[in-house]
Amino acid sequence: MSNNPMISIVAPIYNEAGNIRELYRRVHAVMETVGEPWELVLVNDGSTDGSSEILREVYEQDTLHIRIVHFSRNFGHPMAVTAGMDYASGEAIILIDADLQDPPEVLPDLIEKWREGYDVVYAVRAEREGESWFKLTTASLFYRILYRITDVDIPLDTGDFRLMDRRVVDVVDGMREKHRFLRGMVSWVGFRQAGVEYVRHKRYAGSTKYPLRKMLRFAWDGITGFSHFPLQLATYLGFAIAALSAVAILVVIYLRAFTDAEPLEGQATTLITVLFLGSVQLISLGIIGEYLGRIYNEVRGRPLYIVRDTLGIEREPHAGTRMDAREK
Ligand code: UDP
Ligand code: MG
Questions:
Q1: For ligand 1, mutation pick of 96, 209, 214 (most atoms within 8 Å of CB)
Q2: Helices marked H in 3-106 — which ranges?
Q3: DSSP summary character for residue 289
Q4: Where does the pLDDT of residue 177 fall: very low under 50, low under 70, confident under 90, or very high at 90 and above?
Q5: N or C: which end of the chain has fewer CB within 10 A?
Q6: What is the rounded CA–CA span in Å between residue 66 and residue 56?
Q7: Which residue has the higher pLDDT, 263 or 97?
Q8: What is the reported pTM?
């Protein structure tokens, strides 16, 4: 770490016209108190609400600190964050949401912990304001399931609001997987990680870009990306049903041979069994399909995102470990 390490703050922007100026104002105010050089990398993820014009305005107001990357279309939050990390040049990189749910006032706490020697400092939501009961319970349930069935220890109740040391960012940048469950990837990388608690606020302006449908997609990405458990479900179910059938066979033989009972009369039993097994098989097939689809996306090898334009960025993005470049 040099004496005056540069700090990069990365925020993805998707239709955040009402938040950009306020984000800049607050980040600027906070970072001036920290006293290190800093940059704010704003990645415009195909906004259609005039965010582009506001971004240009903010850039012209402060060309020293502002870096802007425009995508050719909407690629989604994980890609926007990835691009921000690719283009960031700091020794510490901080991911923050543009809607000010993650208060910039927490930045000095994160930087403080990083100075203590931690490589990843994630912000833990001690409290969440202005979120529905439904979102809170499903989110909490999701993190606990994920914790149980995956092989990486993803810390509970953390989002993407976190600081990462350059070493960590280099490794994560080198992981060009197409389904990017970032908080899982960062945990997987290891190094020394620590948490700092904060209160998650409500959105400053605008509305969430993560409706239930996208949340489910996100949760499924997290589970399939870090666990084979769904694939093994079919095996477990198969064994369980086989055991059940063996018992049923014995029972039927007994009833036929030693009693007058007329077991399993009518078609309902047959129908239910066939439908039950049929649906179990279809679901298993669907789960295999999910993993197959992921493999398909990987082998196609398309780029993660496409950049239309940049402002205030001179160097090429680095996609991958640049261990050599660090020595220079
Ligand atoms: N975002 C993005 N691309 C998208 C959706 C969201 O860059 O396709 C950004 C958005 O502008 C915000 C951050 O990701 O800065 C988090 O999104 P949001 O606040 O809508 O999610 P929530 O906090 O409701 O989970
Ligand atoms: Mg938000």
A1: 209
A2: 20-34, 51-61, 77-87
A3: H
A4: confident
A5: C
A6: 10
A7: 97
A8: 0.80
